[in-house]
Amino acid sequence: MNRVHIKTYGCQMNERDSEAVAAMLRARGYRIVADENDCDVLLLNTCSVRDAAEQKAIGKAANLQARKKRQPNFVLGILGCMAQNRGAALLEQLPDVDLIIGTQKFHQVPGYLENLRAAQEAGVPIGETIVDIGEEAGSQNTIKDHELEERQITAFVSIQQGCNMDCAFCIVPKTRGDERSRPMDDIVAECRALAAKGVREITLLGQIVTSYGRRDYVHTGGVTPFVQLLERVHAIDGIERIRFTSPHPRGFKDDLVAAYGRLPKLCGYVHLPMQSGSNRILKAMNRPYTRERYREIVDALRAVRADMYFSTDVIVGFPGETEEDFAQTRELFEACNYDMAYVFKYSIRTGTPAAELGDQIPDEIKEQRNQALLEILQKNSVRRNQQLLGTVEEVLVEGPDKTGQRFTGRTRGNRVCVFDADPRLVGQLVPLRIERASVSTLYGELVLSGVAN
Prior knowledge:
alpha/beta; Transcription Regulator spoIIAA; 4 domains; 33% helix; globular
């Protein structure tokens, strides 16, 4: 019972959590396998942002229960947000699951598996499902181990967990708990260790990453703790690029905007969730900003870096959203000229304030509004990529592309590039002349003479 496969649903935070669990298991002697058919233990790290995400994980777990009938010693676990949200109630649909582990207990997974393995070796039936979804002080400090691949160039670093924003549509405060930040010295040490192993780009992660340390550290000279952390990571030798996600518009104070002008390693790419362009809907969502303030932030960032790239999150069909509300969202969406966007049709999440609201929007109207924004996004992406034709972009070479025939990397604006290169350039910043573009990918040739040969 030492071969483990972890299947991850949802966001980058979930990916990072899964990686940390894998590293902890490997340290205990477990093997992490890529093929779920080759494993003795299968862990589903789940998402609860939308009901569809939960149903997908439940469907997968239901199918795997048949495997337990054939393989009595096969262990099936559900981790993460859905486990936290539903807890033991999952057993009504999934009675044969062995583990249900919440978001503050990832570090307990190795110990629970050890208990299950000991029972199996002793010939004792597993018995009741292990359910652990309790809160645990300091749990944010346990997501620190990394499972790096050979010559891995980029890495996620968790700096903060939980959320205190209480947006009306969002289940995250329930699944992730209150805001909890890691010590700054620990984060910097982790980044320094990653740099020593060859990592060149760090992405700082948090539910509301810009809220980092606001209760734990003082503002120094008008500089927030999050920007203080950016400064310290920026000073690490070997780290060439810094990104972060997901922020909140409220976190974009003057010091963070100015940081894009004075910290060269901070990439000119911002994920700035809008959610709606209607002040009336923003208020109903409990989003503490206006469309006017949002536009001010976008304009301020572009004033610091004219070539700033933006992505966003938008929800269409929030309860009570009128045609006029959506028209305001569409207008702001067009004006901000996003390079990437995640457009969601509002999904009722039981336990959130919005779930109790009347005037739910019909699915067909949600779909129409969703498509309208996606059409704008596609035109924006094509136009922005076409503007890059013939230009030279700085690209961090990450490794072979999916075909294994060419190489891939990203621009500072987070555009994926494909090109010919020598393997020795992995981890290097190189100039790439853009020769061709699709909606989501740039294709080019290295400017350096003879490098691609």
